[in-house]
Design a protein that fits this description.
Strand order of the largest sheet: 1-2-5-6-7-8-9
Shape: globular
CATH class of the largest domain: Alpha Beta
Number of domains: 2
CATH topology of the largest domain: TIM Barrel
Helix content: 25-40%
Mean pLDDT: 90
CATH architecture of the largest domain: Alpha-Beta Barrel
Distance between the termini: 28 Å
Bound molecules: iron/sulfur cluster
Order of helices and strands: EEEEHEHEHEHHEHEHHHHEE
Radius of gyration: 19 Å
Oligomer: single chain
Structural class: alpha/beta
Largest sheet: 7 strands, mixed
Number of helices: 10
């Protein structure tokens, strides 16, 4: 059973992404209302070895030795904010050694980008995906619920500084929650900001899975389209075009159950997403999920007529 390696998951932004969890449990500087992982257990800005780099890299080497199909990308993220792990530089270097032909991406909520040391470490990645949901301070506080000293302006400046220092690709993410951060004021501020930042891509997304608060809801497709156009996004970001594995195969059931437990601990997913990302047959995935649900290991929740499975029960 892997503790820190999960997936691959099908990511609309990156393709088949093998996830590395640098926190091990929900440790974050924010507690976003839409978070897929659930409520933040430890809200902090303290950098430390939340997960020992050696243990994580040993797991990655073991995953590779099992002979799985190589992912499109290795993504550092997991159950919280990955830059909080003070072993970030060692982990990035280790990924390169173990999977030399696979690009490495880092997801970040941008709250530590005011730290020059963190930015320097991120420069070793191929892609950095910072998020910034609102430049209206009151919306930012309401939707992201950060530590008191963290501001939208500070995050925005940190992303600007990283843009200047980082030669890899920078994909900015804006996640819209209906009634929380989809105001005209925010759109106008982000438009100016993006024109100045010139990221390689802007991904405007909305909730597609259950979040932490039931009141956090997706915006409608019209709003999403309008924001995407205004911020210069030329793709739908839905993941429809993400590459699929070559062919589905029947997997060893114990191994499949372990992989499902690891991936569902980080992100609620449907049977079809899970099957496509893991390269497994949908019927077999469904069977194993039913067994896990019966054993109380995972839970089902319906969103927009789709059944999502998750390791945490949603409110
Ligand atoms: S969505 Fe990201 S930044 Fe927000 S609480 Fe979850 S892990 Fe932290």
């Amino acid at each position: 059973m892997y503790r820190f390696v999960f997936g691959p998951v099908l990511s609309g932004r990156l393709g088949r992404s093998l996830g590395l969890d640098l926190l091990g449990s929900k440790v974050c500087s924010m507690d976003c209302v839409y978070c897929e992982v659930g409520p933040t257990r430890v809200r902090t800005r303290e950098r430390k070895t939340w997960v020992p780099p050696r243990e994580l890299l040993d797991e990655l080497a073991a995953w590779k030795a099992e002979g799985f199909e190589a992912p499109d990308v290795v993504t550092l993220g997991g159950s919280g904010e990955p830059t909080l792990n003070s072993g970030l530089a060692e982990i990035l270097a280790g990924c390169r050694k173990i999977l030399p032909n696979v690009p490495v991406a880092v997801l970040t909520n941008s709250t530590l980008l005011d730290d020059a040391g963190v930015r320097r470490e991120l420069c070793a990645a191929d892609m950095v995906l910072p998020s910034l949901d609102s430049l209206v301070e009151s919306e930012f506080s309401a939707v992201n619920r950060p530590l008191r000293e963290i501001t939208a302006a500070g995050c925005g400046q940190g992303i600007r500084d990283l843009r200047r220092e980082f030669s890899g690709r920078l994909f900015l993410e804006v996640l819209l929650c209906r009634g929380w951060n989809d105001s005209a004021r925010n759109l106008a501020l982000l438009q100016d900001y993006c024109a100045d930042l010139r990221p390689d891509r802007v991904d405007v997304v909305t909730l597609s899975r259950p979040g932490t608060l039931p009141s956090a809801e997706a915006v409608d497709s019209q709003t999403l389209g309008l924001w995407r156009k205004a911020l210069g996004q030329d793709r739908d970001g839905s993941g429809q075009n993400a590459p699929l594995p070559r062919q589905a195969q029947a997997l060893d059931e114990a191994r499949l159950r372990g992989a499902l437990a690891a991936t569902l601990a980080r992100r609620p997913q449907t049977v079809l997403h899970l099957a496509a990302a893991l390269g497994a047959e949908a019927a077999q995935v469904q069977r194993v999920l039913a067994r896990m649900a019966r054993d109380g290991e995972i839970f089902e929740a319906e969103t927009d007529g789709q059944v999502f499975y998750s390791a945490t029960r949603r409110p």
